[in-house]
Structure formats: C-alpha cells, structure tokens
Structures
1.
Amino acid sequence: MSDQQLNIFWFRRDLRLMDNCGLYEALRSGRQVLPLFIFDEDILNGLPASDHRVEYIHLQLQQLEKELASLGSGLLVKKGRPLEVFVGLLKDYQVEAVYTNGDHEPYGQKRDEKVRALLESQGISLESHTDHLIFNKNQVLKPDGSPYLVFTPYSKQWKARLSSRDLSPFPSQEMLAHLWKGNIPSMPALQALGCKPSGMAMPSFTVREDIIRNYDRTRDFPALEGTSRLGTQLRFGVLSIRDLVKKAGKWNEVFLNELIWREFYAMVLWHFPHVVKGSFKPVFDRLPWVNGEEAFSRWKAGMTGYPMVDAGMRQLSQTGYMHNRLRMITASFLTKHLMVDWRWGEAWFAEKLFDYELSSNNGGWQWSAGTGCDAAPYFRIFNPTEQQKRFDPEGTFIREWVPEAGSPDYPAPIVDHKLARDRWLKTVKELVSSQR
DNA sequence: TTTTGAGTTGTTCGA
DNA sequence: GTCGAACAACTCAAA
C-alpha cells in the first residue's frame, strides 16, 4: 500500500481532461489525484460481445491515457462491480476523498449511493459535481418549486437562468501538475474486457461553426451535412457542454434549443423515473398495442416497403447513427402505423445508437408515440411518403440506403398508409373517450 | 382563485 | 397549385 494520501477522480461520462468540473475540484484540493475508470460489469454483462459503444469508450480512454502519460501520470482502468473495485482500491491506496461528476439516470444514482455508503463507512467522502448538464435537477423550476412539464416555458426559464450562469471553463489544465505520479498499470486491451471490435467507424466529429450556424435551415434534410453529429461526444463527455452552449448561444438559437431539450428530458427523467418503464401519462399504458413480431422484425431490418423508413433503419444498423428527421419518421411509423409498443423501438435504438442517452431516447420515443409529457398530439402522424417528398426531394438519401427501392426486389408496403392512420386515430379516440 | 393563452418537428380536406 | 381550418380536448403556466 502506498503511504501517500491521495484523491481519486472517477471518470464516467466525462472522458476529457479539459473543462472537467469534478476533475478540477479534485485537483484543486491540494492532494495528488489518481485518475480512475471502471468498466462496470453489471453494465457489460447486459451487452453483446461486440458493442460499439464499449469500443468507443475504450478508444476515448486510450486517448485519455495518452494525454495523462504525457503529463507524467496515467489512467487506472479496472473491470468489475464499482463497489468491489473500490473495496480493492481502499486496500491499495490511502484514499482521502473520491471526486466524480454526477449522473441523472436511476442506475447511476443507485450505484453512486452504494459507493458513497461504502466510502463514508471508511471516513472517505464522495464529492459529486454537475458536469454533463448546465443545470441539475432542481435549478430550473417553476416559481412554486415544481418541475416544468412543458418545454417552452422550461426553455425560457432555462435561458433566463443561463444569463446569470458562469460558463467559463474549469481551469483544470493549470492544475494537472497535481496528478498522481506513482506507478499506474497500463489499461487493458479491448479484447481483455471480453469485447470484440465492432468494425464500425467511431464518431469523431468536431464542432463545426458553419454547420451550427445553418442548423435551422439544413437540419431536416438527411442528405445534407446539416446536423452537428455531436451527440456521442456529449453522451460520453468528450466535449464540454458548457463550451458548446456558449457557442450555440452565439451561433444558432434553434441549435441551442436542441441542447435545452437534452436538459429538459434529463430533468424529466430525474423527477419522474417511472418513464423508464411506462408512459409519462399513465392512461397511455392502456393503449392496445398490436406488437406484431413480424412487423417489428421488418421495421428493424429496414424492409417495411416505405423507403424513407427503411433508409433510416438501415442507416442506424449499419452506422450506429440515424438522422434526427428519420428518428421521428421511423418512431412514428413503428408506433402509429404498426402499433408496436414504443418501448420495443426505444430498446432497439438503445442497442444501436452510438449517441444513446436514456433520457433523450426515452423522451423522444414518448414524444413520438404521444405518451410523454409535452408530447406530439395523437393526430400528428407522419406520412412517410410525404416526408420523403419534403425532406429528400431529390431522393439522394433514399438512393444511398435503399438503392433497390422501386425495383421488384423491394418489398411492397407492409401496411397501407391510410388504413394504418385511421386505425391509430380510432384506437386513441376510443382509449381517450373510455377514460372520461 | 380564476382566467386566459398556449402547446417542437404534421396531414388532410375542401375552398 | 395554394391556403386555412380542422383534427380534440386538456393541461400547463402565468397573469
């Protein structure tokens, strides 16, 4: 056991050294800081052998390790259950305090409470900071102290609060000399974690001022480079949200609003964790979903016979990404045309998306299905053919992903649009009227 | 307490 | 082809 007292900084979804709130606070305390990451077995065991997100995290950790090594330090990477890993660490090191950045998801909160209890039983504190969002659970509330349920008033209040919020970066850089200089074993290879390479291209987009400035005009056209593609970096904290919000505020209000949606849904999940399992509005848990396995399979495979839907679904499977416009079209189609439970679709996106974020994915699906807070009205049903005309008028996107569209090799539409539309309208009307 | 206006991203229909 | 209304009623937020 090392006899020198130290702090641990526990990286999770904040895989960067710069402008990292919790890391800065750990370094500022004056003690040396040992950087730690844990591959959580409880999460890994629920994933397939080849998961592109694990691969992405591993890649970012390698980058972090390189940066830390150049500073004379290193990154301690462990695999196991966090609680058990900490039990081991407390034997190996004389830990004074553990610093980290908070997590708004129910699993992360339970995990952190268990770790906190363990540490506190040893007289060690767990210091948690807010880093992945601008505002935490209770910083943007109605005057009566309750959470907002509608986006627009939330966003107004969010912006009002932002104007008095200091977004200057946490100057972690100036403190990096305080990193632990003792021996740190190098991190395990991906295969040693039991994960195979996915063969997918890892997202590595940069913050593009030109794209963000044009965001409101180009974001709806999947054939254009019209969206930021920064979701994955935000999910894993490779980018600082403070930095991005500062730029968004200068560059494009509509883009800033998207970042506020991200915070809105995080806040909703924080206050209403029941949305993980069921509809925000309980009445919609009684929707008589058809849940056809065959239809669901065809949707997943991009074989519905609606080119716009299939293009989106194939883009997702093959790249781990789907353009936002297509996320709405495919989600609307699965829930309203095929009448498959939104949770099925949510789970599929969760498995496939690089940028998967529980709160945003859940919020988006419930919005699409009309079951969420501040959701789309039930009669707002996307017509996949109409959407194709409006947002891919040249057919560029369709040709890229569904080159056989229009040929005999391409399946006939899985459902008739008008019949499906009428069925959905009738179903929801009956549900709502039965409630009165 | 009551009232009033408003509510991400759409589609269809009929004038 | 364009345009406005209807789709549905309810809940939320704020005055």
2.
Amino acid sequence: MDQSDFHLPHFLPYLLNQAAEAASHEFQTYYRTRYGMLRTEWRVLFHLGCYGDMSAKRVCDLASIHKTKVSRAVAALDQKRFVTRTETEADRRVERLSLTPKGQQVFDDLSRAAHRFETALLEGLPRDEVRHLRAALLKLSGLDQRGP
Amino acid sequence: MDQSDFHLPHFLPYLLNQAAEAASHEFQTYYRTRYGMLRTEWRVLFHLGCYGDMSAKRVCDLASIHKTKVSRAVAALDQKRFVTRTETEADRRVERLSLTPKGQQVFDDLSRAAHRFETALLEGLPRDEVRHLRAALLKLSGLDQRGP
DNA sequence: TATTGTTATACTCTATAACTATA
DNA sequence: TATAGTTATAGAGTATAACAATA
C-alpha cells in the first residue's frame, strides 16, 4: 500500500536508469572480459564501425560525449591497435579516426554479440511495442536531433 | 550512409542509457544543489516516502541496489537528519528506517519536483505512447518482478 | 552456517579547468 | 579569438572482499 501519490517505479528517470542498467549488463561484461574495453571505448569503436571514419569531434557531437572522454578512449583504442589516427591536410588540428583490420574484426564480433543480447532482451515483447519503444526513446534521448 | 547493418541508435542498451541520462539530468541537478544528496540517497528517501518504513535490506531488494551502497546512503541521510534508525525487537540485526518530519518535507518537495520534470519531459508524447513506454520499461527493468 | 549491516579498497564514470597546436 | 584535442584532478558511481553482530 502506497504512502504517497508518487509511485517510484512510474517515475521515468528512475525507470529508464533501471532498464538501462539491466539491459546493458550482459553486453558490458562481454566487451570488458573479452577485449578489456570500457564504455566510451566501445561507443567510439561503434561509431567508426557503423558510420565510417570520422573525427573525434564528430563522435562527441553524435554521442554527446565530452571531448576529454573521447580523447582517452581513442588513446586506449590506438594502444590496442583497434584504430589509427591520421592527420588531415585541410585542417591539421583534426585527426581522422579509422578502424584497423583488427578493430574491424572486433567491431564485427561486438556488433553480432550486441545483436544477440538485444534479441534475447526483447524476447516476449511484441514487435510493434518494440517499435514504439524505440521511437519514444529516440525522442527522449535527443538522438533523433543529432545530424551531421 | 551506414557502413554496416548495425545501427547504433537502434541498439537498445545504448538508446536506454542515452535516454536515461538525458531524462535524469535536471532532477539530478535539483536534488544535488538543493539538498546535497547523491543518487542512492534520493532513491532510499523515495522508497521510505512512497512505501513507508522498511529495512535497508528491503530497499536493496526493491531497488536492486547493493547493501554497501544503501548502508552509506542511510548513514548520509541519518547525518542530514532525514531518516532515523530504530532497532527492531524481533530481529536485532535489522534496523527500521523512518523519515523524520524534515525528511518527509524533503520527500514532498522532491516528489513534486520529480513530477514537474517528468511532465516537462513527456510533453509532446501522446498519452498512450507514454503508457506503452512505461509498460515496456517495467518489463525490461525487472521492476515488475520485485515483490515483497 | 546464514543473514543484516559496516568498512575498506579499487576501478569506472563524470565534470571541469588549464593547456597545446592550429585556424 | 575560436576550435580540436590533451592532461590533470576531483567527485560520483560500481563492485568485491572482509568483517561484526545476530540468528
């Protein structure tokens, strides 16, 4: 019986955090134990794998990650030989980030694993519930607003 | 144009984390600047405010928070004079946690603020989209499985 | 032996300021 | 002046082991 008219499991920020944590846990274990990667590292890797070469700045904008975090993640991915950095001629402040063949393999493996985990996660949820869920989350996250 | 068939903003763990972060930010700023509270502290406070007195163990089970985090949050709430701890006669290992009048006031203020932030957040989302969203998140989070 | 709760410790994540180098 | 990226630092969040007291 509730003591107040505020029901915690209906509070969206709480609900989203609990769902995000539950949904991320297995994938997190996978990329950490298998490749020793941290959260920002797989996110950067996936941006390159999904969209092709880009600058660190562009990753920052697409993923809403601060440049200091991306900088450290790129350094770690570089050390693991998953990415290379190439100075651009047009603007020498900018580095073009690319996956190495090894980085591409890791991305391929991780994206397949991600797909498996997601499938397991969504088992039992009707297909158009999932579609509605993604649409609502896209709006809430602001990810639908982040263009080139 | 995508480089792979894996589309990052459709990957649910990523999407959920981005949405959770965006949705939580304002409320987080509110309870931190106004009451110097941390995440686990407001969560514990809300469990007591929403459901009434309970043990730390019960908060752990309901919220899936580890006992070490709850222990530290309770100590902080105790020091702020937001909660009291009473030894129970039946089992002297267990402490009964209760809101003080001051703690109740803080809960009232925070729950009203939470409601305002949530309303702003959901502005523009049709009412039954929100209903579907909550239902899907409840399942994904496992919050629908956590009973007494 | 098992459970409630505490303390210690290490690692990850977040946020900010100050810096280099280029533009 | 402004921007891309780096380094340093502090605070918050997470995870685990070891412990005390009680059952």
